[in-house]
Amino acid sequence: MQASRARLFKEYKEVQREKSADPDIQLVCDDSNIFKWTALIKGPSETPYEGGVFQLAFSVPEQYPLQPPQVRFLTKIFHPNVHFKTGEICLDILKNAWSPAWTLQSVCRAIIALMAHPEPDSPLNCDSGNLLRSGDVRGFQSMAKMYTRLAAMPKKG
Amino acid sequence: MDSEDDMHDANDVDSYEEDYYSGDAMYSDDDDDAGYEFLHNDSDDSDDVLISRQQKNFTILKEDDIRQRQEDDITRICSVLSVSRDSACMLLRRYNWNVSNVHEAWFANEDKVRKAVGLLDKTTYKPTKARELPCGICFESYLLDKISTAACGHPFCNTCWTAYISTSINDGPGCLTLRCPIPSCGAAVGVDMVNMLTSDEDKTKYQRYLLRSYIEDNRKTKWCPAPGCDCAIEFDLGSGSYDVTCHCSYSFCWNCTEEAHRPVDCETVSKWIMKNSAESENMNWILANSKPCPKCKRPIEKNQGCMHMTCNPPCKYEFCWLCLGQWSDHGERTGGFYACNRYESAKQEGAYDESERRREMAKNSLERYTHYYERWATNQSSRQKALADLHQMQTVHLAKLSEKQCQPETQLKFIIEAWLQIVECRRVLKWTYAYGYYLPEQELAKRQFFEYLQGEAEAGLERLHQCAEKELNTYLNEDGSQDEFNNFRTKLAGLTSVTRNYFENLVRALENGLADVDAHGASSKTSSSKNAAGTSKAKGTKGKGSIRGRTDDSTGWSCDQCTYMNSKNATSCQMCHNSR
């Protein structure tokens, strides 16, 4: 408990100090609970998510950093490895490939990388995975773009 | 498991019989004890031969043996590859503890192997020459003496290392391939670091996984599947029978790790076990119900080993548990026939009441299956009971009997041998019912031959079991005379030997796929099986002339009923009292 709190506090200070280090990631700790974090990440360029801003919710276990944090998308996203309803993410480093050397910041970077390089062979969103697996890249991109516009961009007007 | 050894020893049988019979003929003129001694020594000798033979086939490894072998293998890798014990251990684990595979891979491409296992030959991380270093997990800075590193040099504080390794150990055997926490690094974390940094409890767990890996990853070793047994068996692949027996006395098939099922093959056994679990609902229903006494209809639960049931007074009806028929129909003296192993045999018998009932039973396949399953299960529980009886005999009754009869326990070994034989025979008999179920109906000759052999074996076993269980009781509870007891000794030892022969015939016949049936009249291994194969109506002529090989009036005569070799001046069989 103490170890995880100390470590999270270190990460918190690091985030405060280097706020502008990574302009694509904005990591915020809950005011009253250091085990709850939210992040805003920018959709990577040259992907259907470009221009969108996606919100992630972190729930950090007491055994952190020996156990990985639980992360899910709060913003709806059309992506093979993200559950369309719950926002759950299928990413190896959040499961068995976790290492205590990862930080919340580096998890965000890994999720941005996953957005740019989906893994259609282990899909949580089967519709999305099937589009890619059948080679319909245009179909996938237009769907993903539509949802980005609907859910991840400020409403016009 | 002496009896089992004997059974497997097909080649020695002939010479063994020779010895046995000549010894037997000799003893009838002399006193009983001498004859018994001879018999006794004889079986001991054959055991010794068998034990040495078994050791060629498989080796039982106790925990210490396993550790020793593991250490030896590690030492060999260390000296040949000039690497640390820690590295040698990781290399061996990667190549499933196969020393020559490690050598081969290493000398083919050392760099590739090093990379795959995570053995770095130089550090990848060059720390500054500061007095303090930041831990990569908790991000605090520590003096160098609080910091540890794997071969790569990435610094983590000892507290974080301990927590990191302990988490991995508690996650399971994956801890054996633990790497540096830095995701891109891949340097292995081996047993040295585990020993340096973790609690005793975690160390023990890690060692346990390492030991398990040595057995489980190796193609030639398997754990003994008996509950609570820590031994492993190393098996010489491609050598004969798969049956192995552990120190804990559990016999199992090394190939499929089910309990030993010789002479039935693994495929049949797995089919049978699958079928049993699929049909278990029906079976439970059928077997949960006890059987009513055929005469007075009181429900009876079977709690003793053999099939000969006697209802409580005043009824006292004696019947066979399997077919519920009168027991006197089963005995030898009445000239009746022990038919309970037969499924559809009654046809030939004609007037037999049982036959009508059986034909009815054969109508649907569930009932056919029930027939075999019931006999399989009954023999199974009979065997369990016999095992318990054997244990009871060894721990309690033997001493008591020794006291009562004023004989040293070593002289009473024939009782233990009889029980060992019963336990083994129940096991074989049990599996022959699985065999019988899968033997195609249309192969009439084979079925008949099989059922004949099975019937012979079963009848012999019932006699033996009855004698060991019931008759022995009288000597335990009251002071029988010395003479009576000596007669009992002769009878039980004789029955043990006769039953062993029956089962040897049965096992041999099943193992060569009942080939004697095809080779009609060709010389078969035993005279009894040849006779049975040649006689399609084996029923009526059961026993008659079946074991003829050794009838020679100058030494004695072989009983038509039970094949016992009697002395030449005996007018009735010493074993079954059948007149000559």
TrEMBL record, chain A:
Its EC number is 2.3.2.23. It is an enzyme of class 2 (transferase). The active site is at residue 90. Residues 3-153 form the UBC core domain. Keywords: ATP-binding, Nucleotide-binding, Peroxisome biogenesis, Transferase, Ubl conjugation pathway. GO terms for biological process: peroxisome organization. GO terms for molecular function: ATP binding; ubiquitin conjugating enzyme activity. SUPFAM superfamilies: UBC-like. InterPro entries: Ub_conjugating_enzyme, UBC, UBQ-conjugating_AS, UBQ-conjugating_enzyme/RWD. Belongs to the ubiquitin-conjugating enzyme family. This is E2 ubiquitin-conjugating enzyme. It comes from Tagetes erecta (African marigold). The lineage of its organism: Eukaryota, Viridiplantae, Streptophyta, Embryophyta, Tracheophyta.
From TrEMBL, chain B:
Its EC number is 2.3.2.31. The keyword Transferase applies. Its cofactor is Zn(2+). It catalyses: [E2 ubiquitin-conjugating enzyme]-S-ubiquitinyl-L-cysteine + [acceptor protein]-L-lysine = [E2 ubiquitin-conjugating enzyme]-L-cysteine + [acceptor protein]-N(6)-ubiquitinyl-L-lysine. The keyword Repeat applies. CDD domains: BRcat_RBR_ANKIB1, Rcat_RBR_ARI7-like, RING-HC_ARI6-like. It is an enzyme of class 2 (transferase). Residues 131-344, 135-182 form the RING-type domain. Residues 1-41, 520-553 are annotated as: Disordered. Keywords: Metal-binding, Repeat, Transferase, Ubl conjugation pathway, Zinc, Zinc-finger. Residues 1-35 have a biased composition (Acidic residues). Pathway: Protein modification; protein ubiquitination. Residues 550-580 form the RanBP2-type domain. Residues 521-538 have a biased composition (Low complexity). GO terms for molecular function: ubiquitin protein ligase activity; zinc ion binding. One of its GO terms (biological process) is protein ubiquitination. SUPFAM superfamilies: Ran binding protein zinc finger-like (SSF90209), RING/U-box (SSF57850). InterPro entries: Ariadne, ARIH1-like_UBL, E3_UB_ligase_RBR, IBR_dom, TRIAD_supradom, Znf_RanBP2, Znf_RanBP2_sf, Znf_RING. Might act as an E3 ubiquitin-protein ligase, or as part of E3 complex, which accepts ubiquitin from specific E2 ubiquitin-conjugating enzymes and then transfers it to substrates. Belongs to the RBR family. Ariadne subfamily. This is RBR-type E3 ubiquitin transferase.
